Amino acid sequence: MSTTTLTDLLAEADSAGHDHAATEKNSGLLHIHNHATGSIVWFPTWQKFRETADWSAAVDGLTKNLTSGTAPVEEAASGLLAEELDQLLKRAAASGDAALFVQENLTPHLTRTWAIADAVSKATGQELPSGNTTPPLFADYPYDVYAQDGGVFATTLWNDIIDARRNRALEEEAARKALKPVSRKALKNAARKAARR
User: Fold this and answer.
1) Chunked in runs of 10, what are the mean pLDDT values of the chain (197 residues)?
2) Most exposed among 31, 106, 109, 196, judged by the fewest C-beta atoms under 10 Å?
3) 183 — phi, psi (to 5°)?
């Protein structure tokens, strides 16, 4: 069992400097660079996550939770995945700063999702997902969680988090405009147009 933690790996990547390609190659981490804000979010590949102490603890805890209920393990896990994704996107929509929300929540959500899949495999006595095939657990999940070592999952989830915040901001703006008081002149013009019809 590894004693390396995900926190240690991410801290090393943050302090490694500007050669992100070398850091990726040496650490087993990937990154997304937000050019608008200059921020970088580091996250592990699903393989690298399995090498950490965090993985062992997460999978053991999830295996116990998934096997303690009355529902079949895969069904319970599928429901858990859908619920957690829904909650993540709702929290993202309500956040004040989407970029900060991504930095704080992207990696935990990626690793939790991979841990749930690995816990299902452990609980059902199957081999861990290898990335070559998509486990049935993800049949209705909107992301390809293993493609490009998890990079596709991270990128599409990042975009969905940003879009959730943007869509909420647009809804708030539309609601604000709908509540805007109408001037007397606008009311008179609307009455004239209605009378002409």
Assistant:
1) 80 73 74 76 91 94 91 93 96 89 93 96 92 87 93 92 88 79 75 72
2) 196
3) -75, 160
- pLDDT of amino acid 26: 66
**Closest C-alpha among 119, 117, 163 to residue 139:** 117
Q: Work out whether the CA dihedral 100, 101, 107, 108 comes out positive or negative.
A: positive
Amino acid identity, position 46: W
Q: Three-class SS of residue 42?
A: strand
- Identify the pLDDT of residue 17: 64
Q: Which two tokens stand for residue 195?
A: 């009378």
Q: Please, what is the Cα angle at 74 between 91 and 77, to 5 degrees?
A: 20
